[in-house]
Amino acid sequence: MSYLEVKDLRVAFPTDDGLVQAVDGVSFNIERGKTLGIVGESGSGKSVTSLAIMSLLNRKHAIISGEVIIEGKNLITADEETVRSYRGHEMAMIFQDPMSSLHPFFSVGDQVAEAYKVHNDVSDEKAFDHAIQMLDRVGIPEPAKRASDFPHQFSGGMRQRAMIAMALCNDPSLLIADEPTTALDVTVQAQILSLIKDVQKEFNSAVIVITHDLGVVAEVADDVMVMYAGRVVERGTVNDIFYRPEMPYTVGLLSSAPRLDQVSDRLIPIEGQPPSLLRLPAGCSFAPRCFAKSHVNGDACDTTMPELLQTRPGHDVRCHLESSARISVAKQRLAGEN
Amino acid sequence: MTEPILSITDLQMYFPVMKTGLRTVKTGDVKAVDGISLDVMQGETLGLVGESGCGKSTAGRAAIRLLNPTGGKIVFEGQDITNASRRELRPLRTRMQMVFQDPYSSLNPRHTVGRIIAAPFEIQGVKPEGGIKKAVQELMERVGLNPEHYNRYPNEFSGGQRQRIGVARSIALRPSFIVLDEPVSALDVSIQAQVVNLLDDIQKEFKLSYLFVAHDLSVVRHISDRVAVMYLGHIMEITDRDTLYAAPQHPYTQALLSAVPLPDPIAESQRERILLQGDLPSPINPPSGCVFRTRCVFAQDLCAVDMPELREVAPGHKIACHFPQISLQKQIEIRRPHSDQPMPPSSIQVDRPQTSGPASGRDFVGE
Amino acid sequence: MGIYIFRRTLYAIALLFVISLVVFVLFSALPFDPASLTCGKNCTTEVIEANRIRLGYDLPMWEQYVKFLQGIFIGRDYGHGVASFTCPAPALGYSFFRQECVTSLLITALPPTIWLAIGSVTLWVGTGILLGIWAARRRGGAPDHIINVLTVFATSMPTFLTGQMALTFLIGKFGWIPPPDYYEPYQNFPKFFSTMFLPWIVLALPGLAIYARLTRGFVLETGSEDFVRTARAKGLPEKTILWRHTLRPALSPLTTLAALDLAFMLGGAVVTEKIFSIPGLGRLTIQSVIQYDLPVIVGTTILAAAFIVVANLIVDILYSVIDPRVRLK
User: Fold this and answer.
1) Domain ranges in chain A?
2) Which residues of chain C lie closer than 8 angstroms to B18, CB-CB?
3) B359 in any annotated domain
4) Which chains touch B (3 or more CB pairs under 8 A)?
5) Given an 8 Å threshold on Cβ–Cβ distance, is C237 in contact with A166?
6) pLDDT tens for residues B32-71?
7) Given CB atoms, is A166 within the 8 Å cutoff of chain C?
8) Distance from CA of B137 to the nearest CA of C (A)
9) What domain count does chain B have?
10) Do residue B20 and residue C6 have CB atoms under 8 angstroms apart?
């Protein structure tokens, strides 16, 4: 039984220029103790997906449909008060920029204590003591002293630790980390990722890590979902995605990223630009940039959106090409031949 | 050996710290760059890496005199430009250029792309053959932009295209040297590769030398011939690219490299990570002796007393460390997607490590 | 922090000196002979010259300024013998026209202005902010549009128009409100309140509209900040998110504005005081201008400037209390 089930989630934002379909039919499950990585570039819908799960999108400005089910309760149709009791309690979130995500006017300790107090009937002193314990748990030195400091007195890494303390203070079953290390330096990133892995073990939470960095996914995720233009284009275990990628977009991402551990003469970029969400291509949204398109007979790529289909147990791919053909195209691509 | 196009000796760049009490007094300096020396050779790319606050961007700006250095010496194409006046620098600006990180704020939103790219011609009073418009359109074509979009405004372009505009502007006057300050950091991976390739191509075509300032070690590895690692205003290690990535000797370089997660889950689970403790010390009040000692696991008493000089440990390989660590990192096997190596089943399983190391020829490209 | 306040206070005092000097020099440069203004049309040269010596207008300018400053600290004597009179410190000059020390004129005129200013500023800041919050919460809804129309209307109506209309209709034609008069609040509060009520509203209307629009903008802007999203992600109720997390940062820029507005109003609301016959600083100023009573004009100008300087000082200190980022060790 999965802890979180997302079924056919769709989010659209009406704008003056038309409807922006930011998320288009995303479904997945996640269990406690597992980490799901969502990878994609800007505009892929990965962050909107996480905000929709947390019900943090303003219903006035977003059209949301589908189901987000936590232990049998659908949060999309639930009333605001129920959703509020889940937020920060059952599910918690940390954001990309810890500086702007912490309130500049309140001390770090107060902000963590507030998150605890809102879901627990305790005194202010007790809540603050709990906040100090949490700050200690996430590795902030001298927590009792630092708790009364303000966010601007913390370093970037310490701020993100404080955000994690705030997210974990109610022992949530689901932790969503949206680009948790993008604003941080690489040595601090290593500390924060190792902290996320540690607390996940300790709290046995389900974790969703949203990132554009393939290295971060490889380090923390058990399962990976690759998104492009609002849709899931490939989904599988971390080994499926990194060693047996089939969707040309995933292959393109892997081949265009320079690697620390090897030298290539030339990077193999994906040509063109991601499509505008206002004017998506008629067929497969990746077709205009796809290097495997010529291997598909007919004009299927330009006319119909392929389904997300299983290629082997637990590994789904959205592509018109046959699995064996996909693999051979991928091999050529990764060897720099096309 | 070719001549250095840019030679920096003991460059210092301090910013005063003011304290407002009864009177505003200078109480110290932010030593953003504190005595760095490096040469950029003709036609090479020197990567300058480090974490935020290490002084790499300041060093890059000071190198082409966008800042007035506090001390040291800068020689560009044989000419000492350390104290050159604006008037003296002006003709040199055709020879050295800069590309900035943020493609959104570095282009004037009220000017058309044509006007932005034409600006260097107008400022320098250069009349290209066939007129400015033709030259601009040729430049646009060269960097992969549609020349018909000459009259469009920057907001009509995506991040990657804007960075192409910045590149076109920088090569307009056919410079010999460009400082690239985090030119691809703001871009998505697939677009980043396009711009990196463009930079590679125009370097070959126009015989450019680059100072490539970046924090992304993977990109720096791809693009650089030699790499300098900075920490808190000092160069910690400088050597050719392959040596730096395969056999770094400075504990900081080793920690930095080990912190970068690899897009390779099995390698990732096998490698030993050096987790640096704590945060970057304040550049206003840096540690005594070696600036890295507060976070270094190998630090000894000597390190608190004496800042190690940047010294040569092998030809072309300099480090600033009292206790260099040779080859600390375990060589790990690289698995590429769809390779013929034995692959694990769908669930994560760590295979037995094999003994082949990464290809790391020591072909020094800068020579 | 102590040093900071001390330093700012020193600055404020220095600034006041500069202002007093500038005002003094400006008024001395006016093409009027202050001595001849001391008596009417059929004045003899002897009387003028006697007054000139009595009031010290015969002295060189720098000496006049030194005497003026001395007067502020130790008081000042005018003339000799029987015809002499004394203004105790802080003396800002002597109004020959009214035969009274400027300071005592100011002290008499100050309380009505203070009541008028405090009442109307409280009304306009308070109501403006509440309306602004309401408009922001119902962004794009009916309250937002109604408040938008009302604010345009209120800002485009000058006080002399609204004031005169209120006087003509509400007081004159319908007689709903008692005619203009001034009562001290501690003597007769109900009468004080009923006569001040209309001036407060008239004076508050344009400011109220501006505050409503500013508040709306600041609340909407702060509402899209990352830290408000964090507050929501914590599961805080919307009430707490608005009142605790959004309003404090949203309204902190308004404190500067409100303090300066209050200071400005304390310098005297010329039009409103004139229309509603309130014996405050504004009315004193306009009467002095009409009568060329230069010492009083100098006095009211310096007092008004002093209010602004002190308000700036208070704002600086207040800001460091509100926003920990500007707090100094």
Assistant:
1) 99-171, 242-334
2) none
3) no
4) A, C
5) no
6) 999 999 999 999 999 999 998 899 999 999 999 999 999 9
7) yes
8) 41
9) 2
10) no
In chain A, the residue whose alpha carbon lies closest to the alpha carbon of B157 is: A273
- Give the CA radius of gyration of chain A: 21
Q: What is the pLDDT of residues A154-165, one digit of tens each?
A: 988 899 999 999
**Which residues of chain A does C225 touch, with a Cβ-Cβ cutoff of 8 Å?**
100
One domain for residues B169 and B267: no
Q: What ipTM was reported for this prediction? A: 0.90
Q: Which residue has the tokens 């010496």?
A: B73
pLDDT band at A307 (very low <50, low <70, confident <90, very high): very high
| Cβ <8 Å between A215 and B52 | no
Tell me what the mean pLDDT of segment C93-115 comes to: 89
Contact yes or no for C4 and B22 at CB 8 A? no
Q: Does C326 touch chain A (CB under 8 A)?
A: no
pLDDT band at B251 (very low <50, low <70, confident <90, very high): very high
Is B259 domain-assigned? yes
Asked if A178 and A95 count as a contact pair (C-beta separation under 8 A), the reply is yes
Which residues 6+ apart lie within 8 Å of C191 measured at CB?
A: C178, C181, C183
pLDDT band at A81 (very low <50, low <70, confident <90, very high): very high
Query: Pick from A191, A243, A264: which is nearest to B337 by CB?
Result: A243
The Cα of C319 is separated from the nearest Cα of chain B by a number of Å equal to 17
> Tens digits of per-residue pLDDT, A186-236?
988 998 999 999 989 988 999 999 999 999 999 999 999 999 999 999 999
Cβ contacts of A170 within 8 Å, gap of 6 or more: A88, A89, A92, A115, A116, A119, A120
Structural domains present in chain C = 2-102 (no CATH), 105-292 (1.10.3720.10)
Which range is least confidently modeled, A256-260, B287-291, C48-52?
Answer: C48-52
Tell me if chain C has a CB within 8 Å of the CB of A163.
Answer: yes
Please list every residue in chain B whose beta carbon sits closer than 8 Å to the beta carbon of residue C328: 20
In this complex, do A56 and C236 lie within 8 Å of one another by their Cβ atoms?
no
